[in-house]
Amino acid sequence: MFITFEGSDGSGKTTQVQLLAEYLRQAGRSVLKTREPGGTRISDGVRQLLLDLAHTEMHARAETLLFNAARAQLVAEVIRPALAEGTVVLCDRFADSTLAYQGYGHQQEIAEMARMIEYATGGLRPDLTVFLDLPPWEGLRRNRSQGNGKWNRLDAQELSFHQRVVAGYRKLIAREPQRWVEIDASQPREQVHQDVVRAVEKRLAVFAPAP
Ligand SMILES: Nc1ncnc2c1ncn2[C@@H]1O[C@H](COP(=O)(O)OP(=O)(O)O)[C@@H](O)[C@H]1O
Ligand SMILES: [Mg+2]
Question: From the CB of 9, is ligand 1 less than 6 Å away?
Answer without folding.
Answer: yes
